[in-house]
Design brief:
0% strand
């Protein structure tokens, strides 16, 4: 089971922080990660994210297992960017990506989804005056969070199916079914929401 989008009950100080504080911290940390340039700051940011992930109670070993698909993607990104723009830029881009995903994972691991959505709804409340619907934004947030582990599970199932057919080295055998199944899942979710009159 992927830890992305999955709350893990615990008693750490990260669990005790209010959801609004964690979301604000995630926003600030994301801006800092993106604004700071250079491989050194990127690696420092990644190290900080790893430490927070360890403190979250998720367990570094379990976290690495759950993010193995992302780690493979990051390795490919590292190699491609290194060939195109050099190793320094490749390290910066890859470390920034991993840091952002880890930080977001820490928030979802230590915070129930309902608390996240309540915090988003309250935070966007003042924007009703300019036409923003906080409940609609919170719904989109919820769907996004819940879609992450589903997509990871679909990727694993698609990989296993390709391996069973002896096509594990064929990118099309993995990518095409994954895209089709992901789109089908998104359409099914949309139809279910529409049938319930949610989001109209």
């Amino acid at each position: 089971m992927s830890l992305l989008g999955l709350h893990q009950p615990g008693t750490t100080w990260l669990h005790r922080l209010p959801a609004s504080a964690k979301l604000l911290g995630l926003l600030v940390a994301s801006v800092v990660v993106v604004v700071l340039r250079g491989p050194v700051s990127a690696v420092v940011g990644l190290a900080a994210a790893v430490v927070l992930a360890a403190w979250s109670g998720a367990g570094v070993r379990r976290l690495l297992r759950s993010l193995r698909v992302l780690l493979l993607t990051a390795a490919l990104l590292l190699a491609y960017t290194a060939g195109q723009r050099g190793w320094e830029r490749a390290v910066e881009v890859t470390a920034d990506l991993l840091a952002l995903v880890l930080l977001a994972t820490v928030v979802t691991v230590t915070t129930p989804v309902d608390e996240v959505l309540d915090a988003v709804t309250r935070g966007l409340g003042p924007l009703r005056r300019v036409g923003v619907d906080p409940e609609r934004v919170a719904l989109a947030f919820s769907l996004m969070i819940r879609a992450v582990p589903t997509t990871v599970d679909l990727a694993v199932e698609t990989r296993d199916a390709a391996r069973a057919r002896g096509l594990e080295r064929d990118p099309r055998a993995r990518l095409v079914p994954l895209v089709i199944r992901s789109v089908a899942h998104a359409r099914a979710t949309g139809e279910a929401l529409d049938a319930r009159g949610i989001g109209d």
